[in-house]
UniProtKB/TrEMBL annotation:
This is Septin. Residues 444-456 have a biased composition (Basic and acidic residues). The keyword GTP-binding applies. Residues 64-330 form the Septin-type G domain. GO terms for cellular component: axon terminus; cleavage furrow; septin collar; septin complex; septin ring; sperm annulus; synaptic vesicle. It comes from Anas platyrhynchos platyrhynchos (Northern mallard). Belongs to the TRAFAC class TrmE-Era-EngA-EngB-Septin-like GTPase superfamily. Septin GTPase family. Keywords: GTP-binding, Nucleotide-binding. Residues 393-415, 430-456 are annotated as: Disordered. Gene3D superfamilies: P-loop containing nucleotide triphosphate hydrolases. The keyword Nucleotide-binding applies. Residues 430-442 have a biased composition (Low complexity). InterPro entries: G_SEPTIN_dom, P-loop_NTPase, Septin.
């Protein structure tokens, strides 16, 4: 059975102060005023009834219900799901992740829980694939982005004209349980880098997971080593508050036990004549809720039973406030102007609008200049190309003319040669025909002479 502490921390503080002001058995109230404030102390002569204010506050909160969001950051298989099941005494769904995820992801599940008449909307967000990549440089990024996304969603709701914050499902992370592997050596650089990136955004509670894997003496040294590494690297972990005197002592003691060494198990074993959550080994049994065996009870006490409200409050007043401030400053909102006068929303809006319009104009001008410059460059390029083309054309024209002249000269000389040849040919033919004629008359003469000599 899980017990939620109602009233919350603020209400407890309010109630305590009230008790101081109204001595039991007195029908009237001593109304005090703080020094320097301009109000008078007046006695009441009868019961008025505003002493029920804390009760009204508690009733309202109980009727409305509570929400609590836990982020479990830790390597695959370190016992995140088992610890959540053990802490809340139930079985949440959740399949084991594989070790072959290409990157880190976050898985979120929301559950409605009820204990006595208190309703709790619990969201458990777990890392999937954390520590499984060869290059772990960016492993923290999806976690930071997830936390910021929840802050951003809340801020957007706050900035709406019609906002419904009382009904809003607040998904901002209230507690980050950081699971440290039970190596017994020291923190891994992945742990240090991730915690350092998260410490200004979320309440980090470091825990040594599967602490049944470390011996008692090793565990003491391991805790000291982890604490000194966190300090030397400037990692701010969540400190249980000691300003509320009703819990100051227990919280102070518990701060010295951090990081809690936890063991998770949903298995119930009979020990003596009682059923207890435990893990059974060949050599014996380790009891989850036995403070001599591990710090599970301390964690449950601190996280759920004593400081749940402080974790919620710190998330809103410290981490969300920081996110909101940075975001609003980024958007140009300021509380005071350069003369330390309050800045009105209207002025801020107008200043931002003018700044935006100025920037827009500058950008437009720059773009216009760039356009003109580009056109000029293109024009020059085209002119250069045109000039080159003209030169090329002239060159080709000249070349063509030269070629043409050469060809004409060649043709003329060929024509001359042809004519000369023709003349030579005609002369040769004439000579040949003359020779043939001369040869023919001689043959005739010889035939005649032969004939004449034959008759003789
Ligand atoms: N020895 C030991 N084993 C544990 C402890 N807590 C869980 N386991 C075992 O470790 C294994 C993984 O536990 P899970 O709770 O699934 O771990 P997980 O971190 O949720 O794993 P993923 O979601 O897959 O990253 C299971 O076999 C659990 O029984 C523990 O405190 N000590
Ligand atoms: Mg799991």
């Amino acid at each position: 059975m899980v017990f939620f502490h109602a009233p919350n921390r603020a209400e407890r503080v309010a109630t305590r102060r009230f008790v101081v002001l109204v001595p039991p058995g007195h029908g009237h109230c001593l109304v005090r005023r703080a020094k320097g404030e301009g109000c008078r102390t007046v006695p009441l002569s009868g019961h008025v009834g505003f002493d029920s204010l804390p009760d009204q506050l508690v009733n309202k909160s109980v009727n409305h219900g509570f929400c609590f969001n836990i982020l479990c950051v830790g390597e695959t298989g370190l016992g995140k799901s088992t610890l959540m099941d053990t802490l809340f005494n139930t079985k949440f769904e959740g399949d084991p992740a594989s070790h072959s995820q290409p990157g880190v992801q976050l898985k979120s599940s929301t559950y409605d829980l009820q204990e006595s008449n208190v309703n709790l909307k619990l969201t458990i967000v777990s890392t999937v694939g954390f520590g499984d990549q060869i290059n772990k440089e960016d492993s923290y990024k999806p976690i930071v982005e997830f936390i910021d996304a929840q802050f951003e969603a809340y801020l957007q709701e706050e900035l709406k004209i019609k906002r419904v914050l009382h009904n809003y499902h607040d998904t901002r992370i209230h507690a980050c349980l950081y699971f440290i592997a039970p190596t017994g050596h020291s923190l891994k650089s992945l742990d240090l880098v991730t915690m350092k990136k998260l410490d200004s955004k979320v309440n980090i509670i470091p825990i040594i997971a599967k602490s049944d894997a470390i011996s008692k003496s090793e565990l003491t040294k391991f805790k000291i080593k982890i604490t000194s590494e966190l300090v030397s690297n400037g990692v701010q972990i969540y400190q249980f508050p000691t300003d509320d005197e009703s819990v100051a002592e227990i919280n102070g003691t518990m701060n010295a036990h951090l990081p809690f060494a936890v063991i998770g198990s949903t298995e119930e074993l009979k020990i003596g004549n009682k059923m207890m959550k435990a893990r059974q080994y060949p050599w014996g049994t380790v009891q989850v809720e036995n403070e001599a065996h591990c710090d599970f009870v301390k964690l449950r006490e601190m996280l759920i039973r004593v400081n749940m409200e402080d974790l919620r409050e710190q998330t809103h007043t410290r981490h969300y406030e920081l996110y909101r401030r940075c975001k609003l400053e980024e958007m140009g909102f300021k509380d005071t102007d350069p003369d330390s006068k309050p800045f009105s929303l209207q002025e801020t809006y107008e200043a931002k609008r003018n700044e935006f319009l100025g920037e827009l104009q500058k950008k437009e001008e720059a773009m216009r200049q760039m356009f003109v410059q580009r056109v000029k460059e293109k024009e020059a390029e085209l002119k250069e190309a045109e000039k080159e083309l003209h030169e090329k054309f002239d060159r080709l024209k000249k070349l063509h003319q030269d070629e043409k002249k050469k060809l004409e000269d060649k043709k003329k000389s060929l024509d001359d040669e042809v004519n000369a040849f023709k003349q030579r040919k005609t002369a040769a033919e004439l000579l040949q025909s003359q020779a043939q004629q001369a040869g023919g008359s001689q043959t005739l003469k010889r035939d005649k002479e032969r004939k004449n000599s034959g008759f003789l």
